[in-house]
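Hi R.,

Here are the chain sequences for the assembly we discussed:
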Amino acid sequence: MNPKTLDAKFEAYLARDDDALLGSQFFETLAEIEKRRTPQTIEVTLHVVEGQVKFEPSPQIRAQGNVLWVGDKRIVVQMSTDEPRQGHQTPIRPHKTRDIQ
Amino acid sequence: MVAVELTQTLTDAQKTLLLRYLGEAERFSLTEWVTLLEAFTMLAEATVQLNQQRLTFQAFYDRFIDDVKSDAFIAELYAETDVPARAPAIQAGYAREIFAQLCCEPFTLGKTPETECLLAYCLYWWASFARGSIFELTIFRDMTETGIQFTPHDLRVRAERFSPCDLTLLNMTGDIKNTTYFLYVARSFPLTCDFYITRLYDVQNRCYVRIVVLTEPAWHRINGETVSSDLMQAASKLPQVVSTTFLEYRFVIVEYNLWKQKVLQRQQLGESVHEP
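And here is the predicted structure of the full complex:
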């Protein structure tokens, strides 16, 4: 970046007070934080056509064929008629709630 | 020049806000502010390659800014008799030093979008630390002048700056947080102290109004009537004492001066000061 542009940005940063939130803005921001912490429910429909799974397109979530994208995760759903294997479970790591992209 | 690797899960929207932060954060919507706070949290784990060393952004900030500047800054604040009047100039002076240092060799931050994110990260945390320390010292001095008995942590002692609470009184733990840092911390709910002193801006009178956010049990210790409100309407109910819910926890919000009166009354009735 041009040094002059960067200097101008820095001067803008120095000149303002990010803390100057009005009461209404403060509480609305808390409400927004609360909203993002609340788990979001998205329903998806899965079709099984000739042994292949296929998600129905949805405006709420990116889906294509048997793949869903949730945050930074790409979830590939496979169908099997076999019994579930014993002693093997995909570990689930706790993570922060993130918005669906 | 350093090589920066941003957190992979950072979204395009978050990157855009990080690059806009220095120059135009005053134009951010509230939603964008919350997204920006999320981005700064995620950036702590981003890395910077410096010579043969790879540091996280947080380690970079600690080594080159916090370790070098914070003690001297705090000492200058304590030397001032009128902290609110003098502190902004002191804060800006240090920010200029930091900006000059980070834009020069060996760092030369700001020449690429990735290094500008590191620059934004450092300046954001410097402003947060500086504003928080100024506010905290101002409150400590005000409470002392009012005659409230309390045990503060000592900002001049580095280890105490990272203590889980800033003060104790009436066997309750309290924290003093400037507005944006309170919002940053509120994202990591549940809050861990009994009460939080923070501030809101009064645009008509062009000044800050201090408030105290208490847990319900902490409010019951000093007692008084409240009016219930949801979060979105809480501001319109002030200066009444407002009871509201955040993430399913009940909180009470009271103006700082009223809270001080009630604490003083309670202490004069004979409740002891907690000595940790």
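Chain A touches chain B through 33 residues (CB under 8 Å). DSSP finds two helices and five strands in chain A.

Let me know if anything looks off.

Best,
T.
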